[in-house]
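Supplementary Note 3. Input sequence used for the single-chain structure prediction.
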Amino acid sequence: MGMRRIVLVALGGMIACSSSSGGGGGTSSANSPQASIGPITVAAGQEITECIVIPLGNTEDFVIQGVDVSLAPGSHHLIMYQTGDPPQTTPFSCTPFSNIAFGTGDTPIVFAAKEQESFTFPPNTGLEVPANTNVRLEAHYINATSKTIEGHGQVTVHGVPKSQAGTYQPVGFAFWGTINIDIPANSTASTGPLFQAGTAGRHLMSISTHQHHLGSGIQVWESTASGQKSKQIANDTDWANPSWTMLQPDFAFDGTNGLTFDCSWDNTTTQEVKFGESALDEMCFIGGYEYPFTGLDFCVDGHCKDR
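The predicted structure, written as discrete structure tokens, is reproduced below.
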């Protein structure tokens, strides 16, 4: 079974739930286009993923230089993609991460897994979006409380029209990880150090991590070669509050160096836990922005694609 098929099977196992949802919208100011989704009603104990497609509101080719994200409590993640799909302002059920994993043509612009996040790209870099871009907002909610919550997410991008941007390096997204996760009941487990080489000529600008509620930590190092840990760039022990660190200086890939990462879990349940998108499953992913952008840099267990 190929890597794409393995990931498809794993990501397809969402819990089926009903929900009552509001719409979303985008607003446009000269240098700060905005998109939002919600309110989305999430019942106690419910897990859902809802999407909308809306105009970002940029009337010119635009270069994103910074991002602000605001998520309501109960948000597991929010992803904003550039898409060629027509607007669909009524929220619809969707499969999380599928647009990253399967090369649908949608390109991730922002990935957020904490309630508040703001960052600015380094000088002379920026993420390009064409005029009149439509964006897909993918909102995954897990309500672990005993009361109904109202999910909401908002992304504001800051930048300038491309005509005013001057010379810059185009930015894109890297997303690496493993699906080889098997955590016995009532036990701890770790992937051990895993190494992924970067693409020669690219520069990693930021790093973030992603686990589910049994995650006890992800460590990430810059490595000159497999098995070497020259500099730790992430040490996240709270799965619900992952870092989003801008690297200073950025990490230049030469085709042999890359990142080493190690994910660990504490399975306090009576069930074996494996890879999957549901709150009952687990994940081990690292990601960040890199330049120059030539397509989504997606690697799972050493199998990479660039689109």
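Residues 217 and 252 are 25 Å apart (CA to CA). The chain has two helices and 26 strands.
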